[in-house]
């Protein structure tokens, strides 16, 4: 019976693997091509009407207005994009795409590890390029992302990937870009299911939890300054925070937690800091600016958390941070985060309705995350010498009504925009469009 059960399990997992198979990654660019006539949204606030973009060997070699940019058409393919729009590929910050396929199937969940302090846990080696969820990002222009572990006080180390690859080695753009910690909450809620008051109250263990984190940092620094006769992988992973090669991402929402976390990390000698979530960051904009702290702002499409918050606080917070000259990018965390990552451009579009210009909103999902993640030398904007990771849309890509892609490229490779969702849409649209 045990043998039979094992066989059935293997067959089940095989079926899952085959059923989740992704589109075959696009081949390396073999011929130069030019995108002609489109409105080019550079990603830094600049817009070029009737543009020409020439791509060779996966990089942008020419970009400018059609009227003043020479073009040798005989040597390349021409994509006529008149009336359409070109954008840099959108970037998902603080995501878990590729770490979970089906939440209800435990074997497909590789989101976190046991333990409290896991800086040495590398999310990249668990990244599944065959994920159908990842495949469904590309038709909305979401082409790059940060793969982030969850859980514990120190969750682990993230990496940055592109969303069209055979394996995690092919996908990786930047390995081990930073370490993620969950800052202790300064407030807790009562356990209502035990009859306790569900209201907010001070966390009595807050100082103790911060002290434990401080001790861990101190031990890590001491180890990395020592002779390292005995290997300690968690402490070794922390070294990048102190020499500036890794960024520290701190998940914290409340005002006190934000200020305490920044002061703590500055005291520890950590120079690269990003606050993740940052629900009350609007209350400490001057403090964040003075300390050169960037922000991964929580999902825009959420409700206010506190009863005295403005009803539209989540929608207008991005503008408040941008107006304060803080480097801010959008992230999709929250309920159904992986599936909702495809809505990243529409989160940015909502910030336009609440005060940002369209080009400012575009920077929240292109230039700004690329700069924070340390990949802005190659991605995030349309510039000569940078990767041709971009897409062509029928209309405004921040509007769900007109975000209709006709082409998408990663490093100049022409991607398939077909997914299991588009296949089902075509299948059933044909069925219900039949005349009876």
Give structural notes.
The N and C termini lie far apart (52 Å). It contains 13 helices and 20 strands. With 436 residues, it is an alpha/beta fold. The strands form four sheets. The chain has an eight-stranded mixed β-sheet with strand order 8-9-10-11-14-15-16-17, with helices on both faces. The chain has a six-stranded mixed β-sheet with strand order 3-2-7-18-19-20, with no helix packed on it. The protein folds into two domains: 104 residues, Urease, subunit C, domain 1, CATH 2.30.40; 289 residues, TIM Barrel (Alpha-Beta Barrel). A hairpin with a 5-residue loop joins strand 2 and strand 3. It is globular.
Helices and strands in order, then pairings?
Elements: H1 2-19, E1 33-36, E2 39-41, E3 47-48, E4 51-56, E5 59-65, E6 77-80, E7 85-88, E8 90-95, H2 132-135, E9 142-147, E10 154-162, H3 168-171, E11 172-182, E12 187-189, E13 200-202, H4 206-225, H5 233-243, E14 247-252, H6 255-267, E15 273-277, H7 285-290, E16 294-297, H8 313-323, E17 328-330, H9 337-340, H10 344-353, H11 358-363, H12 367-373, E18 390-393, E19 405-410, E20 413-414, H13 420-433
Parallel strand pairs: 1-6, 2-7, 8-9, 11-14, 14-15, 15-16, 16-17
Antiparallel strand pairs: 1-4, 2-3, 4-5, 7-18, 9-10, 10-11, 12-13, 18-19, 19-20
Helix pairs in contact: 4-5
């Amino acid at each position: 019976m045990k043998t039979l059960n094992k066989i059935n399990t293997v067959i089940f997992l095989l079926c899952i693997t085959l059923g989740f198979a992704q589109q075959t990654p696009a081949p390396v660019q073999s011929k130069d091509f030019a995108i002609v006539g489109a409105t080019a949204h550079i990603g830094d606030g600049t817009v070029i009407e009737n543009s020409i973009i020439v791509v060779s060997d996966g990089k942008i070699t020419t970009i400018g207005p059609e009227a003043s940019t020479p073009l040798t058409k005989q040597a390349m393919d021409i994509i006529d994009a008149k009336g359409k729009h070109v954008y840099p590929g959108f970037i998902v910050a603080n995501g878990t795409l590729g770490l979970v396929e089906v939440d209800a199937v435990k074997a497909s969940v590789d989101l976190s590890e046991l333990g409290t302090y896991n800086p040495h846990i590398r999310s990249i080696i668990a990244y599944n390029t065959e994920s159908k969820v990842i495949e469904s990002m590309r038709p909305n222009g979401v082409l790059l992302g940060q793969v982030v572990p969850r859980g514990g006080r120190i969750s682990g180390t993230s990496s940055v990937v592109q969303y069209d690859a055979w394996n995690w080695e092919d996908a990786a753009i930047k390995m081990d870009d930073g370490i993620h910690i969950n800052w202790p909450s300064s407030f807790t809620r009562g356990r209502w299911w035990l009859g306790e008051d569900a209201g907010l109250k001070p966390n009595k263990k807050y100082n103790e939890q911060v002290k434990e984190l401080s001790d861990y940092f101190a031990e890590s620094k001491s180890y990395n300054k020592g002779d390292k006769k005995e290997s300690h992988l968690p402490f070794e992973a922390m070294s990048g925070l102190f020499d500036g090669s890794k960024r520290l991402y701190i998940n914290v929402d409340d005002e006190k937690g934000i200020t305490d976390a920044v002061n703590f990390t500055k005291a520890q000698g950590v120079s690269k800091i990003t606050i993740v979530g940052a629900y009350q960051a609007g209350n400490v904009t001057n403090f964040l600016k003075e300390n050169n702290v960037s922000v991964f702002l929580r999902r825009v499409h959420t409700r206010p958390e506190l009863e005295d918050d403005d009803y539209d606080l989540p929608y207008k917070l991005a503008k408040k941070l941008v107006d304060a000259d803080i480097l801010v990018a959008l992230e999709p965390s929250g309920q159904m985060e992986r599936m909702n990552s495809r809505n990243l451009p529409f989160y940015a579009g909502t910030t336009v309705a609440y005060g940002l210009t369209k080009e400012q909103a575009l920077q929240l999902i292109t230039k700004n995350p690329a700069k924070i993640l340390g990949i802005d030398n190659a991605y995030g904007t349309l510039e000569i010498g940078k990767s041709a990771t971009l897409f062509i849309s029928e209309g405004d890509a921040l509007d769900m009504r007109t975000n209709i892609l006709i082409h998408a490229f990663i490093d100049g490779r022409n991607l398939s925009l077909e997914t299991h969702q588009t296949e089902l849409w075509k299948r059933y649209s044909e069925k219900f469009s039949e005349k009876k």
